[in-house]
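Why do we care about 3D structure at all? Because function follows from shape, and shape follows, mostly, from sequence. That is the central idea of this module. The next example makes it concrete: a single protein chain, its amino acid sequence, and then its structure expressed as tokens.
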Amino acid sequence: MSDIFSLTTRPNRDLFFTNDDRNDPRMGSLVATAPSDYAAAEIVILGCPQDEGIRRAKGRPGAASAPDAIREQFYQLSTLNIKKRVFDLGDTQIGETLEATHRDHAAVLEGVLRDGKRLIVLGGGNDIAYPAGVAMSAIYNPEWWIGVHVDSRLDVRIAKERNAGTQYRQLLDERLLLPENFFEVGFQSHFCSPAYYNYIRDLGVHRISLELLRSRADVDRELKDAIRLEFIKHSASVNTYFGFDMGAVRSADAPGTTSPSPLGLRAGEFITLVKYAASLANTRMIEFSEANPDYDQDHRTMKLVAIAMHRFCSGVQ
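And the structure:
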């Protein structure tokens, strides 16, 4: 536990909203932050406030300030239906390089997972999926975890240095994530390189495009059916990770993202997928990345992530 706290900074208590109405408690008065409360926690919030991976990928910066912007909205929400003990660990300390940050972030994630807790991770760039995969593989072994990437893009690029578009290529090439355990969900064909699409197809990665999601009456049905088959093959002990890049949501509902698009998941569809993640008994980590407060309108994107966090906390069994 000491390493977890030495590699993180404590959350800003000014973000924890409280009011004078004892009949209307908010998350700001419920979520614990004192190190002495960590042992009893069941769900742990962790931020990684950096956008170096986005800069390397020549995207628009601003996601580094997302974790606290999301917290500000989350801690104003009601405590209704929250039964689990939630703890805010704060933020991973940002290193001198992206690689150093990833190393320390993976170490913190491993520590929390080893302690048997679930994680809500707030980016930052989507490159933090790489240390998330490193941690999942270290704790559960590659054969025993499933990765679900919800994004408008595939993020399996080849580059001279890691960035916010290379993370799943790294995990696959290093065999930390097995292709048969990997799901690309919500991608849009007009954003996908033929070479990179062929790469995941030839590996046998599960591919559920936005168009395929929309072809079902329930937006999560295709994903449910595919993951259910993996559970049957592996047994009920398989563990799951969900990485949500907020660029998967259409810009009308999430204007504040690194890579906005007029097409994408509707806000309600996004929440449905988050609720599905919460419903799985062995979902260990859920991650929200590439929200960008610099381009948000009326805090709509930050509020959407905050609501998703609330749905996850209230839906976990």
